[in-house]
Amino acid sequence: MEREANPPPRPLLRPLLSASSSTTSSDFVRNIQAVFKRPRPLGVMPSNLPRAQRILVSQKEGKPVAGGRSGAVAEAVVVASPTDEESSITHPSVSGTLTFEEGRAVAPDCWKGSDGGGDGVGVGTVVMDDCGGLKRADFLTVGDACRRSFACEEGRSSSFDAGSAAVSYEDLKQQEFKPIRSSGMNGQLLHKAEPPPNQHFMAIHQMTRSLASIASSATTMSVNSTSAPRIMSTTYNSHSCRESGSHTDIGESNGNPQLVTRGDCMPNTLGSQASVFTQGSSYTPLTSGIQDQVILEGKGSHAKGNDGDVEPGKVHHLNERSSKGESIFSDVKDSASLTKNSSSHVNSKPPPPSRTEKSHHKKHSDPDAFYKVNGKLYQKLGKIGSGGSSEVHKVIASDCTIYALKKIKLKGRDYPTAYGFCQEIEYLNKLKGKSHIIQLIDYEVTDKTLLEDVMSGINNKKDGRIMNDTYIYMLLEYGEVDLAHMVAQKWKENDGTNWNTDENWLRFYWQQMLLAVNTIHEERIVHSDLKPANFMLVKGSLKLIDFGIAKAIMSDTTNIQRDSQVGTLNYMSPEAFMWNEHDANGNTIKCGRPSDIWSLGCILYQMVYGKTPFADYKTFWAKFKVITDRNHKISYDPLPNIWLIDLMKKCLAWDRNKRWRIPQLLQHPFLVPPMPRELPPSGD
Ligand SMILES: Nc1ncnc2c1ncn2[C@@H]1O[C@H](COP(=O)(O)OP(=O)(O)OP(=O)(O)O)[C@@H](O)[C@H]1O
To answer: Basic and acidic residues bias: where (predicted)?
Structure first.
């Protein structure tokens, strides 16, 4: 419907080329501009929608010098001038005066971040008003992390639409405007901004905004001037290569444009051209060398690097998920490749934004879309899990690395519990650098004294509950899938009935689990809550997560001291149920490393038989009764490999002193099959 309301698509490059060959340079440039002019939709804009305000920027004085610093002073005047596209933008409008001085944009005080320090997050659009046509350059400001450059044209009124009240003052202040004189452009000067050093968030934003407009073929047009930096205009359309795909350089020498056509068809592989595209960007680094790779799923559009091959580790998958309210990015891998050499091009006349673009624009206007840990911003990509005490979110950092962010709300909890949560940080710090343990990248406890108390060993001292809004944020390595899902999937594949034991699968993950638990046991830590959901697969290896109830083993004992009974019933050892009681000999029952071995035995049993050993006992008391009964016999259905049953029995020995330890388990015949006494004759 929306499409029908619009005028027919603008002409593609080929008609332009034939026309321009016989025109003067200024006509020619006008033609180019006409090509990129955005058609205005015919529909009437609803008046009840919130409207972003525009600020008309008119240059008052100071002629910029070609190739040098501007020196121009431009003043921004606030006017209400909504456009069709702005009607969908709901972020708060900002008014004020933007002044360009000495090649810098100086923002008014009212644009400062809420803290006045320019630490906010903001999205804005510079819309170039050019004879009714619009150009735009978007910017995203995230503290110092990202600054988006934008362009203005001399002698023309340009519009500035500041989209967010939290636009960073510092960011705007630091914008540099480099004037570019191009006689072939009717003597217009283009003020171009240098790419800021950190373009990560910008790259995200650029790619986000570009999704809707990048399609399977591309028309790349370069306007070159011998005396000025180049303006690269890249447009993409959904037409087939045959229809539109020309890569044409419009070189300009001595003011005379020259057309150089580089082939008829622009393949999906853009060769040396950039593969991260921006709409309406004035940021044109024109880098050479290795280019980024972007694969747009569901669009049939590929933009690749120089070599044209898609390297798995360097592919950025962009899934449009905005309908779910999530970011449209997912699994952006190998962040370095995203930003390292990314190039962007000017689109002087971008097509109207699609719905996806609009919703994404809204998304970025929302400061709630970010978490801040120790001053660094992480964009939320969606919730990935929640435990008894926490929420875990998938987030993306400014370098495009994906992390899991565990957020624990402490308000209303008693102090011993809060100290326990802080202890998880302590353990994860202790386990830094250990393979098989999820890595803690960063953390923040909003109540500093709480963490200090734990770190200095002063805990469990305070009574009462935490009254203020205190949170623990833990930025963790991101795990793709947990063992619980993998086991469920395996059983689904086997139809839940015909379990043809995949011994190699079992061996691989069993060994990884043993190595993970061995790591913590060597550090005198007992996990106490081992279960399939607490093993995450990270880049092919299993890693242990969730040290929320882990306990350190006292130096003078092999057992841990507990304040309460904990664990997940189906994986809890007899001694965890009977903790602090007295055994037949009058000894106090304590938990230690064997308790974790029991839990591992339950997990192995579940991997083999599809259910935990006590799953058939449904209630707490039924489980309690059977697990604490030393005479209860766990049933083991026959298996082709008797060592497997033996292994489970070694872990699930009721007497904790009879359970095998991890070094022994790592040498168990199931993992290390005994050599056959006699090998068959060779060649037989
Ligand atoms: N690093 C991670 N990567 C990916 N997902 C994770 C990560 N950490 C946790 N999760 C997901 O979040 C869920 C809850 O995390 P976690 O177990 O750490 O929280 P919890 O509140 O301590 O849970 P529980 O109540 O089970 O003890 C996990 O089951 C897992 O699905």
So the answer is: 240-250, 304-324
Pick the residue with more confidence: 578 or 542?
A: 542
Better pLDDT: 588 or 489: 489
Give counts: helices (H), strands (E), the chain: 17, 30
Q: pLDDT tens digits, residue range 140-168?
A: 433 333 333 333 333 332 333 333 323 33
What is the rounded distance in angstroms from the CA atom of residue 236 to the CA atom of residue 245? Answer: 9
389-434 confidence digits (pLDDT tens):
789 999 999 999 999 999 999 888 888 888 888 888 999 999 999 9
Q: Are 665 and 649 in contact (CB under 8 A)?
A: no
Q: Is the ipTM of this complex over 0.95?
A: yes
Structural tokens at position 135: 């150009």
Q: Which two tokens stand for residue 16?
A: 């332009």
The residue to mutate among 545, 568, 569, having the most atoms of ligand 1 within 8 angstroms of its beta carbon, is 545
- Ligand 1 in reach of 545 Cβ (< 6 A): yes
Query: How many angstroms does the Cα of residue 538 sit away from the middle of ligand 1?
Result: 13
Backbone angles phi, psi at 202, to 5 degrees: -65, -45
Residues 80 and 56: their CA atoms lie apart, in Å, by 9
C-alpha count within 13 angstroms, C-beta hemisphere, residue 72: 27
CA of 454 to the centre of ligand 1 (A): 22
Please tell me which residue, 426 or 110, carries the higher pLDDT value: 426
pLDDT at 484: 96
Give the number of residues written for the chain. 684
Strand partners, 409: 471
How far apart are alpha carbons 160 and 108 in whole angstroms? Answer: 13
Phi, psi of 569 (to 5 degrees): -45, -50
